[in-house]
Every structure is written in structure tokens, then in C-alpha cells.
Amino acid sequence: MISLASIVCWVLNTYEGRVKVVFLFKPHRVAREVLANAGFTVKYYRGRDALTDKEWVTNELKDAEVVVITPYQAFGKSLLALAPELKLLLVHGSGYDRLDLEALSERCVCVANAPDYVADAVAEHALALTLATLRNVITGDKHVRSGEWCEGAAPRKFLGLQLAGRKVGIVGLGRVGARAAALFKAVGASVTYWSRRRKVEVEHALGIRFEDLEELLSTSDVVVISVALTPSTRNLIGRRELSLMKEGALLVNVARGEVVNMDALIDALQEGRIKAALDVFPEEPLPKGHPLTRLSNVILTPHVAGYTLESVIYTGRYVAEAIIGYFIKRRIPPTALNAETCVECLKKHSR
User: Catalytic residue at 284?
Assistant: First the structure.
């Protein structure tokens, strides 16, 4: 049996100074340490988004064989042209709708994401947004901060709703949707789901029911959007779909802002028919003075649903191990987004 020490020694002798990994953001030290200890050269941007610093990006990508980005960073032909040595691109999270996957595949770049650990965090955030809305958490916080209190009977504006016994409809039963379904069931909610493809095994495992989208929207007290953004799901929830929702129902979006038609949503909120809790928006950051910021029946968070200490650490470790696996073990990442291309590219890069 080959010892770990001998593997590390071989890696250091073979790869040190040869494989350069560039993070277009500042990753957690765990990811950096795992890669550095395996002999890879690690460069990272010391801010949140390297794409704001074109000089840094141009200089670092010219000899990068691996690039790691966040889901909110785009990577297309212009950046690809700056990285002639690129072999592997990893998304530090789940979303990959900002990638030009076709162009990357044509250039023989293996692409993968890291959705598992982020999914738990996003599902928890969906539950947190729901409870904060139903229990008037933001209203209560502002009330106390203003120096007020509830003397005697609490004002009606604090009359909350319990989640237990209410119906929650999950739109999209991927990793996030499945975890959200389990969490909402644990609190006592009745859970149904709609997905582009019915998932009978997951239904049985979680004890949830499939419904068509119209039925789900018209009968749910809470609708959680967790579907991936694709051409078929862009504006999936439009004016007609919002009109189907129950009076006073809550729409929670932790997927992508483009899944919901923003103009239609603002109109529904201004009419006071529904409530919303949003972590994602078609335009990010949300412009100053945006109509959503003036509405009291919506809770807004700045695309941070997946941002927890645990998700950052474990996702970083997964990314680092995927890089090591690709270059050392000649192994395709299990979350490859262009798996067939990865197989061909790995053969090409091994020559």
C-alpha cells in the first residue's frame, strides 16, 4: 500500500510550480492550505470579486491551469481568451448560469460546480426567511429599536402565523429543494413540490407529493422557488402564475432572480395580494431606490443564502480535493457539468 507521505512527496516533486490555481475571490484558508500542501501554486484575489480588477485578472490568468469562481461571477469568451493554459474551471457553489459552457467545452476545459454543502445553507435560509415573515420578526425588531414596547395586548400588526399545519410548495426539487422540503416538514408543514421531472424516489423518501405548477401555486401558503435557472425556467413565475397564488401567500426565492418576473412581482406586492422574501434579484446588486426597497411586505437579503462558515469551509475543501483528484488521480469531478468533455480533455491533458 502506498503511504500518504509518499504520495505527498511525489506530488510535490511532480507538480510544485507547474499547476497554478487562481481563485477570483478570497477563499477560506482551508482550501488554500489543502492545495498548497499538495504542491499546487495558489493565487487568489484579496477582495470579494477579482473581475473588478482587470489588470490583476489579466496578469494571473495568463498561466493559470485552474480557475475557481463564485456563482455570481461570469466566465465567458473574454476571460477564456486571457487563460490559454486553462484546463479546469470550478464553481465554488452551485449556480453555473453565468458560464459559457459551450465555449469552455470547445476549448477543452473541464467544468464542475460544488453544490452539496451550499444546498444545506440555502435551504436553511429559505426556512429563516419564511419564519421571519410569518412571525413579523423585522417589524418587531424595528418596534423595539424605536424605543416602543407592547403594553398590554400586542398590536394586531404583531399577530403572527405558525408554519406548522400550513402548506408549503417547493418549485424545483434539486439539492436545495429536497433539503428545504425536509426542513419544512420537520417544522410541521405539509409539503408538495413541482419539478420539470417528477422524482418518485425522492417523493417517497421525504413523504411529499407532486403537484402540477398551477395547483401548487393556487393552494400553497408558502411557495419556495429553488429551481435552477435555464432558458425554460426564465420568467417561470410571471404575472399569470402570481395571480394564481392565494391571498396573503408568501413567495420565497432563493434560486435566481430571473426565475420570477420582477415587474409582475412588484405589481402583486404593491397591490398587497401576496408577500415575498427574496435573496436573489435579476439585477445584482439591487439598484439604490429600487421599488422593492420601499415595500413593507417583502424581506430582502443580498444573495447570501449559501454564505455560512460551514458551507464556505466544506465547499472550499471539496473544490481543492476536486482539483487534486483531476491532476493527480486523473479523476473527473463527480459534479462535472460537461462530463463527456472532461473525459476527452483529461486524455488530452495527460499526453
Answer: yes
